[in-house]
Design goal:
Strand order of the largest sheet: 3-2-1-4-5
Structural class: alpha/beta
CATH architecture: 3-Layer(aba) Sandwich
Largest sheet: 5 strands, parallel
CATH class: Alpha Beta
Number of helices: 6
Helix content: 40-55%
Length: about 170
């Protein structure tokens, strides 16, 4: 399955700097990874899309169990509730802040659909995908019924998004 080869074949670029790190909430270790990237100066800013109401940067630090070196470089997006909403929120934030390149941090299985939704909005910035791999999903997806079902469901969501964006 091409989709599985793609989502388990991403390499992680730890060298190229982007204008911003953008992370989509919802998956394990995504936020901690994005903060680590910001703290390592791989971008000047961090945008966290899809944050729940009344959540502060301090709350995020506590939950992710990681310290943010420069909290003033972090902005929170509170409007997104799904991947399409993430794409809209990210596009608006990048346009407002003149961002030309982002490191998109999300789960490996979520990257194809997330990038598709951003490109469908004619996002005018370069995207460097940065996958977060889960210990709960087997790279041998064909040997694990749970991983197979999960991956098949994500593939179906990707296909629906692709078809919706064709028209």
């Amino acid at each position: 399955m091409f989709f599985c080869g793609k989502i388990y074949g991403y390499s992680i670029d730890e060298y190229h700097k982007t204008d911003a790190v953008v992370v989509l909430t919802g998956g394990r270790n995504r936020i901690a990874e994005s903060i680590r990237l910001l703290n390592n100066n791989l971008a000047n800013r961090l945008f966290i899309s899809g944050v729940s109401e009344n959540v502060s940067i301090k709350d995020i630090e506590d939950k992710a169990k990681i310290y943010i070196n420069n909290p003033e470089r972090v902005e929170l997006g509170y409007t997104a509730r799904d991947t399409i909403g993430n794409a809209r929120e990210v596009k608006e934030w990048t346009e407002k802040n003149n961002i030309n390149s982002v490191r998109l941090v999300t789960s490996n299985y979520h990257l194809p659909r997330s990038m598709l939704e951003l490109y469908a909005l004619n996002a005018k910035f370069a995207i460097l995908p940065h996958p977060v791999y889960s210990d709960h999903l087997s790279k041998k997806w064909f040997m694990s019924w749970g991983t197979f079902k999960f991956t098949a469901a994500e593939y179906n969501k990707f296909l629906l998004a692709w078809m919706r964006n064709l028209f």
